[in-house]
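Much of our argument rests on the idea that a fold can be written as discrete symbols. In the encoding step, the backbone of a single protein was reduced to a row of integers, each denoting a local shape. We regard such an encoding as a compact summary of how the chain folds. The record that follows shows the chain in one-letter code together with its fold in token form:
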Amino acid sequence: MNVSTSSLAGAITWARIEDDFFVGSRDGEFLGFIDIEESGVYVVCNQFSRPVGQYSELDSAMAALSDASLAALEQTGVA
């Protein structure tokens, strides 16, 4: 498993579980995942396994999950 981390407080930590599956977390809290379809499309789902979107680039998929997690925090009044 490869893990990508950031030294920034509150940054997302990405874990590559398999070649085609990434999990995002922040401060130990699960945010969602990215699954790579056979066609090469990156499918993003939130922490409730609800689709966020489909993207052609991994960076875009990761940014979408980050944005979705911030929006969820704002809706709950945590952010």
